[in-house]
Design goal:
Number of helices: 14
Strand order of the largest sheet: 2-3-8-5-7-6
Radius of gyration: 32 Å
Structural class: alpha+beta
Distance between the termini: 35 Å
Helix content: 40-55%
Strand content: 15-25%
Shape: elongated
C-alpha cells in the first residue's frame, strides 16, 4: 500500500505541474458526464410518464377482445365484436378488477365549418371513468360548456385538436357522425350498417396524453344500441381492465398480467377471446422509445469517447514531454509496472475529478426540470401518431440514482485504463534512448 501511496503522490504532482492540460481534460470529462446524466434522466422521465399516460388515458392495464381483432387492430374490424359480455364484467368485479365495455369504430364528423376523420369510442361513461382519467380533463375550450358525456344522451366529447379543426363554438356545437360498421351475428352472417347520427358536443378533452387530444371522440355506448344509433344490439369490441387498487402512478404489475386476468375469468372466458396487455398494444411506442433513448445515449457517449481520447492524448503528450525524466526514474529503479501505475493514477484522478464535477453539474441542470418541469404542450401540437412520446402537458424529468453513480464510476475507471496504452509505449523505449531524448 505504501508503494501505491507514493505512486499516487507522484501522479498528483504531475497533474499540478501541467495545470492547463489538467483543467481542459477535467472540463471535457465534466461536460460529458453532466450531459449523459441529464439526457438519461430526461429520457427516463419521458418514458415513465409516457407509459403511465398510455395506461391511465388510453387502455388501462389490459384489453379483453377477440384474437382476430387484435391481429387487425389497426383496421378496427368492427365485425370482430362480441355480445353477452355482462357476465364477464361481473366476474372481473368480484375478482377485484374495474372493467369497462367499449365499441370502437371509425367514421367522419361534420360541423357547419368543416369535417374530419375520427376514431369513435362508444363507452359507458361511469365504468370508463373508473379506469381512465381523460374525463378529468374535459374543459370548455371554444364551447364554454366543459362537461363529460352522460348515458342516454346523444352527446359527445372530442379531442382539442379535433375541436379546433371543426371550428366548434358554443353556437356551433351540433355535429353529424357518418359511419359504416359491420356486425357479425352468431350464425356468422355480417350485417353492414351505415348511419348518420346527430349529436351535441358538450366538452373538449385536453389531457396530458396527446392521443386523447387528437381526432378522437367519446359517445355513450347505450345510445348506439338501437336503430337511432349504430344498431349494435349489445355488441362491443373490447373490455378495458384495471386492478381496483392500482394507483395512477403505478404501472401494471403481476396481478394485471394477461395470465392473472385470464385466471380470474377461468372457464368463463370464451375461447375466441383473449387478454392483451398494454405492452401488447404499445409495441410501436416501446420500439420508438427504445430508438429515441438509444439515439440520445449514443450522442452523449460520443462526447464521452471524445473526452476519453482527450485523456489518452493528455497522457501521451505528458509522456513525450517527460521522456528524459521517465528514463531517469527507470534508471533509479522504478519498474515498468510502477511507471504504468503512475500514469493510471494520473488518468484516474482526471476522471474522478471530472466525474465529481460532472455529477454536480448534471444534477444542477436536472434539478429544475425535476422540480418544476417543462410545459411540453407548448413545444408540439396534439397529434394522433401512436409511436411518439405520450406527453402533451407539464413534463418532469426524474432522478436515476444508479445511472448517476454508475456514470461517475465508469468515467473514472475507463479514464484510468485509457492510460495503459501510452504508458506501455514509454516502457518499450530503452533507458539509454530515454536519457538522450530531446
Amino acid at each position: 500500500m505504501a508503494g501505491c501511496s507514493e505512486l499516487a503522490k507522484i501522479a498528483l504532482r504531475n497533474l499540478a505541474r501541467h495545470r492547463v492540460k489538467t483543467v481542459l481534460t477535467v472540463l471535457a470529462i465534466m461536460v460529458s458526464v453532466a450531459l449523459y446524466i441529464f439526457a438519461d434522466s430526461w429520457i427516463t422521465g419521458m418514458s415513465m410518464e409516457s407509459r403511465r399516460n398510455i395506461v391511465n388515458y388510453e387502455m388501462g392495464a389490459a384489453k379483453l377482445q377477440t384474437k382476430l381483432y387484435f391481429e387487425k387492430k389497426d383496421e378496427m374490424p368492427s365485425y370482430e365484436s362480441f355480445a353477452n359480455w355482462e357476465v364477464l364484467l361481473e366476474i372481473l368485479d368480484k375478482a377485484g378488477y374495474n372493467a369497462a365495455p367499449r365499441f370502437v369504430f371509425s367514421g367522419t364528423m361534420f360541423s357547419l365549418d368543416g369535417s374530419a376523420p375520427v376514431v369513435f369510442n362508444a363507452v359507458d361513461p361511469v365504468l370508463d371513468a373508473q379506469i381512465l382519467r381523460y374525463a378529468k380533463y374535459v374543459e370548455p375550450g371554444p364551447l364554454d360548456l366543459g362537461r363529460y358525456i352522460q348515458s342516454g344522451n346523444f352527446e359527445i366529447v372530442v379531442g382539442a385538436f379535433l375541436a379546433d379543426k371543426l371550428k366548434l363554438t358554443q353556437e356551433n356545437n351540433n355535429v353529424q357522425i357518418s359511419a359504416t360498421i359491420d356486425i357479425k351475428d352468431e350464425d356468422g352472417k355480417v350485417r353492414h350498417i351505415y348511419q348518420v347520427i346527430s349529436a351535441v358536443v358538450v366538452g373538449v378533452i385536453n389531457s396530458p396524453n396527446p392521443v386523447t387530444n387528437a381526432n378522437i371522440a367519446y359517445i355513450p355506448l347505450d345510445v348506439l344500441q338501437g336503430e337511432e344509433g349504430m344498431m349494435l344490439e349489445g355488441h362491443i369490441t373490447e373490455i378495458l381492465i384495471r386492478d381496483k387498487n392500482a394507483k395512477d402512478s403505478d404501472l401494471p404489475g403481476k396481478r394485471e398480467s394477461a395470465a392473472s386476468i385470464a385466471a380470474a375469468l377461468g372457464n368463463n372466458l370464451p375461447a375466441k377471446l383473449k387478454v392483451f396487455t398494454w405492452k401488447d398494444y404499445s409495441a410501436d411506442y416501446l420500439g420508438y422509445e427504445k430508438m429515441e433513448a438509444g439515439a440520445t445515449k449514443i450522442l452523449t457517449m460520443l462526447l464521452f469517447v471524445l473526452a476519453l481520447l482527450g485523456i489518452s492524448n493528455t497522457i501521451l503528450m505528458s509522456i513525450l514531454e517527460r521522456t528524459k525524466e521517465i528514463g531517469m526514474m527507470r534508471a533509479l529503479g522504478m519498474t515498468d509496472n510502477q511507471l504504468i501505475l503512475v500514469y493510471m493514477f494520473e488518468a484516474g484522478f482526471l476522471g474522478l475529478l471530472g466525474s465529481v464535477l460532472g455529477i454536480i453539474l448534471g444534477c444542477a441542470i436536472n434539478y429544475p426540470v425535476v422540480e418544476y418541469g417543462i410545459d411540453f404542450g407548448s413545444m408540439r401540437e396534439p397529434m394522433g401518431a401512436t409511436a411518439s412520446f405520450r406527453i402533451a402537458a407539464l413534463f418532469r424529468s426524474t432522478w436515476d440514482v444508479p445511472t448517476i453513480i454508475g456514470t461517475g464510476v465508469v468515467a473514472t475507471l475507463v479514464s484510468s485504463f485509457m492510460a495503459i496504452f501510452p504508458a506501455r509505449r514509454a516502457t518499450k523505449m530503452p533507458i539509454t534512448d530515454s536519457l538522450r531524448f530531446e
